[in-house]
Amino acid sequence: MEDADVSKVVSIQIPLGHALLAWETLSNKFSDLQANNLLSDEERRSIWGLADLLENILAQNGFDARPQAEWQALINQSKAFIKTIPVEFLD
């Protein structure tokens, strides 16, 4: 098998609500990865990198620092949106 160019940058289309909830999940559930012995260093770096990429996408689209109540409203809106995505799309 030929070596793949894993450094190639690719683009994906993702709804902002999906990106917001994914970033929130990564930030909240994986913020202390140093204490997580189940993950390798490469897995930790992958999670941190993805969270950083999502955070940049969100900031570029106006989803940056907001008052807590406003932020929670965005999270709730995103959760409601995620529930509308057909399961086939998530498989």
Description:
The protein has 91 residues and is an all-alpha fold. The chain has helices spanning 16-29, 41-60, 68-82, 87-90. The chain contains 4 helices and no strands. The longest helix is centred in the middle third of the chain and has 20 residues, at 41-60.
Specify the biggest β-sheet: none
Approximately how much beta-strand content do the residues carry?
A: under 5%
The total of helices stands at 4
Q: What shape does the CA trace take?
A: globular
**Helix and strand element order:** HHHH
Helix content: 55-70%
What is this structure's SSE topology?
Blueprint: H1 16-29, H2 41-60, H3 68-82, H4 87-90
Helix pairs in contact: 1-2, 1-3
Compact description:
The protein is an all-alpha fold and 91 residues long. It has helices spanning 16-29, 41-60, 68-82, 87-90. The model has no long low-confidence stretch (mean pLDDT 87).
Q: What are the salient characteristics of this protein?
A:
91 residues, mainly alpha, 4 helices, globular
